[in-house]
Amino acid sequence: MKILNLYAGIGGNRKLWGDEHEITAVEYDPKIAEIYKQFFPKDTVIIADAHKFLEEHYQEFDFIWSSPPCPSHSMLRKHMSMASGAKAVFPDMKLYEEILFLQGYFKGIWVVENVKSWYEPLVKPQLLQRHYFWSNKQIPEKEFEKDNIRLSGWGTKGQPQWTQIKHLEERHGFVLPEYAQKKRLLLRNCVNPKVGKHILDSIIN
Question: What is the pLDDT confidence band of residue 147, given thresholds at 50, 70 and 90?
Fold first, then answer.
C-alpha cells in the first residue's frame, strides 16, 4: 500500500509496520524529521504542514494515518488551566476538520488518532488503550500492557525524568540520539507501536 503518515513525530505508530509498504511521513519540525529518517531510512520524509499536505495530496494514497496535536483536547491540559491558572485555550478544530474531510472525500482506508478528550467528542470515536481513534474501519478491541510508571511528574512522588525516558525508550523500542531535545515529550507523544501494528494489521486483513 501507499501509506501517508501525518504528524509523524519519531514514528511510534509506524515502528512495527515493516518495510513492505511505500510510506510517506510528514513532520513539521526538521529536527524531529531527522530523527524519524534515522529510524526509517526507507520512508519518504517530507518537512511540511501535515494539515495542508493532507488537503493537497490525499488522493495519492491507499491508507492515511493522522495524529493531529492533542494538548488542547486533553483532560490534563484542561485540568492545568482550572487548577493552576494556565491559560485556557480553544480546542484545535483541525482534528475534526480532518475527520470530516476524510469521511467525505477519501476513498481509501483512514485512521485519525487523538487523546481521550475533556469533552464529549463531536464525532463518535473508537476507544483503544485510552486513546480515541476515528476510522472508516472497525478496529478490534485488544488489551495492551499498562504503564507501570508515573508520567505526569517526577521527584519524590514519581520517578526522575531520566528514569521515565529510559522506561519509554524500552517500551517503544526507540533509543533516541544524544542530540535529541525534549526526549521525554517526544516519547510520550508516541503511539504505542504495538497499537499501531494492531490497527494496521486489523484494517488491511
Answer: low
